[in-house]
Amino acid sequence: MRKTDDTIILKLLKEGRTQKEIAKYFNVSPAAICKRLKRIKPLPESFENLTDKEREFALQVSEGKSQTEAALLSYDCTSRDSAKSLGCSLMKKPDIQIAISELLQESGLTRRYRIYKLGEHVDNVDPGVSLKALDQSWKLDGSYAPEKHVLAHADLHALIAATKGHKQPEKVEE
To answer: Residue ranges of the domains in the chain?
Structure first.
């Protein structure tokens, strides 16, 4: 006999209870509640426009997998390069972007929250953490295209070297 009741789990979730609180209510682990929710919670409406493989891809990305890893797990890719290319093209589809965004919001990872947390890391005293956060913020707002990324990466190395008191490396010709 199951220790949890799906209708009560969904009711508590609608009331705004956390998975940890629901787990305590049933005297089970939070992981057990998380696993159960994955099975019983309805998928967002945005999933209606996606194929089964696109749905799996969106779920994998929302769980923290890279685009490449999500494509490898969701599609029959012949190589890592083809998965990378497929993942990139899938992420450009508006329906997939909406589905991933809705999945993240359901988990409490709204765009506003992620930006706030990123801002905390930008202000970190550790320059490695701070610079990585700045890099992520530039990616988030599309500040640099792929060709700009190469130059920004080289400039980033120069900045790191300068902060450590090292001589600035020469720029690499493309």
So the answer is: 6-40, 47-106, 111-163
